[in-house]
Amino acid sequence: MKGILLEFYKIRRRKIWVIILVLLGVQCLWGLWAFRDMNEKKLSQGYMQCLYHFTVLNTIMMPMVAAITASKICDLEHKGQTFKLLMTVMPAGKLFDAKFICASMYMVAVGAAQMIFIIVLGKAAGFTEPFPPGYLFYYFVITIFVTVVILSIQQAFSLLFSNQMVSFVIGITGSFAGLFSLFLPRNIQRGILWSYYGVLMPVRMNWDSQTRIADLQYIPVDWSSFWLLTGLFAVIYFTGRRCFIRKER
Amino acid sequence: MANIITTSGLCKQYGAAMGVKDLDLSVPEGVIYGFLGPNGAGKSTTMKMILGLAKPTRGTITVFDKQVNRRNRLAILKETGSLIEALSFYAHLTGKENLKIISTLKELPDSEIDRVLKFVRLEDQKNKKAGQYSLGMKQRLGLAGALLGNPRLLILDEPTNGLDPAGIQEIRELICSLPKSFGITVMVSSHLLSEIDQMAGHIGVISKGELVFQDRLSVLHDRSESRIAIRTLDNIAAGSVLGSQGITCQEQEGYLLIPKLNDNQLAGYFMSFLKEDIGVVCIEERKKTLEDIFLELTGMVVKL
């Protein structure tokens, strides 16, 4: 707990939330643009529309949010050359954990802000679809979970390499890989970390090529993908943590 | 005197090269131990291994009579302060906030921050961002961080690097006062002999990863031998005069070098030169400096 509080103390005046807020704002504006022409059909599937579009937007934006947050939280140690100091007063593993939890808090805040935005949008636009608290909560959990897994890989690279471009390139590449993977078969999607926003999304689009009508529907949780991602998370987190601990200063 | 740090057969290998080789250090308690060596000799690597920041390839490290391992490292380091290589600080935080981070990790009260700030004379600058500090102030902030919790042992790696003469003097004075004021044992490294000469009581000289000398500094001073250098108008004739009286001499850069003699003997030879019409231009006492000894020890004597 002491380590986590210290991480928040260290990022005083770094204004990490500003860049996160800007990216969140861009995402929300982008989302609003998608809802500019809401007809009766769309209003009847309002929340589904939101969850679908926001999931796609998350695939693009959230890896960048994770990359920037991890970079900001780790870069201050590289810039201050403080690893040699910190490693004599605390275990390296605890520093890794504290940074991860601190950065994850920001991801939770972003997920919560998105959920609040969807609820407010639903009320303001007058969605006629019944309010789906369960699916909204599921969306909230999945958004945070996938982002946190991406954050773990970003943090490992941000801590291991002093040049933060490495971390940014991974973040941007992952973001595009995730986006393009949405057009690929599901089994390939499951092999790409950044595509899990789509893999685990609670809404599916049915496209009828004859009537040329797209229809949305809720789908059950894909537990096998969820557990696969949990396994990936454990492997990435503990590999990154081990590499960080073993690195000589 | 008990040793506070002992290393035995300490080695560190980087690829095929040995950065540190079979190092047997003994740092006595309550002294300032100067760890001297040219750049790249293995000083920082050794200090990092003592602090557990680098893993030894072979050998053992004992600090406070306990052999350091992965499990007890941090418990041992609780009584140790350190300042390794580059300055460590968060530029966007104030001096006090920087110290707060270390004191929180060391579970120390805030009064300890005020104590060390006062000691390094930064109490008036404590609310200024560390990034705006001068190099000397940053170094003092680093020293303050190392002193938090009044450690028994302080490990300082080239603490005066890059400082101006005033800054060097200030840091030196602070370091010199530590054993007397707080009973702290200080291990300080430098590549500058004059620096160590002014601070340390004990010294270890490392060259190419190997310890080439370790003892009291006074022992090294005793090694410096005096010689008399005489410059005459005819060094060959003067050499013959000295030789005929059983004095061995060698000519070097226009001077005749002879062993140190007492004043009466020297005056006698001077009279002999005058009798032989050999004009004496200059007589001086030459002492082998610590620097000469250091260069000999480290095998870095360079003839231009």
Give a structural overview.
The complex is a heterodimer of chains A (249) and B (304). Chain A has 249 residues and is mainly alpha-helical. Chain A has one domain. Helix content of chain A is 74%, strand content 5%. Chain A has helices at residues 2-10, 16-34, 40-44, 46-80, 83-86, 92-125, 133-160, 164-181, 186-189, 196-199, 223-246; strands at residues 203-208, 213-218. In chain A, strands 1-2 form a two-stranded antiparallel sheet. In chain A, helix 7 runs parallel beside helix 11 (223-246). The longest helix of chain A is centred in the first third of the chain and has 35 residues, at 46-80. The radius of gyration of chain A is 19 Å and the shape is elongated. Chain A starts with a helix and ends with a helix. The model of chain A has no long low-confidence stretch (mean pLDDT 90). Chain B has 304 residues and is an alpha/beta fold. Chain B has two domains: 3-221, P-loop containing nucleotide triphosphate hydrolases (Rossmann fold); 225-287, Alpha-Beta Plaits, CATH 3.30.70.790. Helix content of chain B is 36%, strand content 28%. Chain B has helices at 43-50, 73-77, 95-105, 110-119, 135-147, 165-182, 193-199, 217-223, 235-244, 263-275, 290-297, and strands at residues 3-14, 17-23, 26-28, 32-36, 58-63, 66-67, 80-83, 153-157, 185-190, 202-207, 210-216, 226-232, 250-252, 255-259, 280-287. In chain B, the strands form three sheets. Chain B has a six-stranded mixed β-sheet, with helices on both faces. In chain B, strands 1, 2, 3, 5 and 6 form a five-stranded antiparallel β-sheet that branches. A four-stranded antiparallel β-sheet of chain B has the order 13-14-12-15, covered by helices on one side. The longest helix of chain B has 18 residues, at 165-182. The two termini of chain B are 43 Å apart. The interface between A and B is medium-sized, with 24 and 28 residues.
